[in-house]
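Supplementary Text 2. Reproducibility record for the structural model of the 419-residue chain.

All settings were left at their defaults, and a single model was retained for analysis rather than an ensemble. We include the record here because the model underlies the residue-level annotations in Supplementary Table 4.
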Amino acid sequence: MPILSTRLPSGLRLVVEPLKHVRSVGIGVWVTTGSRHEPDHLVGASHFLEHLVFKGTSRRTAKAIARTIDAVGGQLDAFTGRELACYYAKVLDELLPEALDLISDILTDPLLAPEDIERERRVILEEIKLTEDTPTDDLFDLFYSTIFGGHPMGRPVFGTPGSVRQLQRDELLTWRASHLFAENLLVAVSGSCRPEEVKESVAEAFSFGANNHPLAITPPTPQGRRLMVKEKDSEQVHICLGFPSVPNLSPRRYVASTLNAILGGGVASRLFQRIREEEGLAYAVHSFLDTYSDAGVMGIYAGVSPEELERILDVIGQELRSIVEHGVQPEELALAKDQFKGQMTLALEDTANRMSRLAKQLITFGRHWTLEESLAQVEAVSLDDVQALAGELFEPSTYCLAVIGPIAHEALEERWLPQ
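Retained model, structure tokens:
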């Protein structure tokens, strides 16, 4: 069915995808500002505000907000990232008006009461502690700090204990006003709905201020080969080795995704087969690809016994060099394409996933890509494309390694840092 994409008189962007044969609808209000836009004295402010909007409005208490969403058997949540934040819900189609009213209420009329700020400050500090006690979560914060250095992209989205303790109510209010305006938002809806009715409901429900000044960002610069080690008492050493990759708008984004699938994106991937199946070095090993407006990261995660750390780093290096020097086999490429296309297609069975894909496409490209268009781009990736990109990305002088576990920095320093 036709997708409605429009900008309302208020400046608010709206995209609606009506679907037949489903009973659910996914709704998301996307804020095109994230943690990288925060000034140094407001690190963690976006995430702090994400927490606070659920603490009550002039019409609803925090408990009433929770009961409203539970009463309709739906989902209501939010997340903050480095470049985007999203407040979203998934409900039965008949309850779409109630969900829109709830999301608009928490976003347009949050109380941000001083007592709630102090209470939630303690909650966020506990959330940071939980991250620090979860090696995989802590590792990825350390990795981003390693690969982006002091750039805002390298800061933890949650902020630090010090920055969270210092944030004041007037600063949070000023920060909210600086980026929560109509032209900085996108409302995306996918599922069982009538686009014109949704358009009317959104126009009535969401009222934001006029255009504010856009927040400038500075592109990150390559940091070169770097090593960061966080010594910690644990049974395993957790490692993340990565390197700069392509950004969102790169014409080679599908090449990068295919390369990632071949490298460590599934159980048939090179790293999984070599490290887990053939050598039994690790239970958990995978690669990942993160893309942003002006940067990208490809990385490899593994959890390994301390005595096997050198061996697993050697194996990873061997597999990276093998792809650069010898390329990949036709059957590897075909399998990676099928895996990627299958994941892309199956994700569209869920209305919340469809809503998210739709919103990100509009924000990134300014248009909607059909599934057929996306699948065609995956299918167009060639063996030469994959090897050429691998030759650019798998450059040892750009490798960044983050490590958490019972190992000292000095034990890896000579191998990983330039002489």
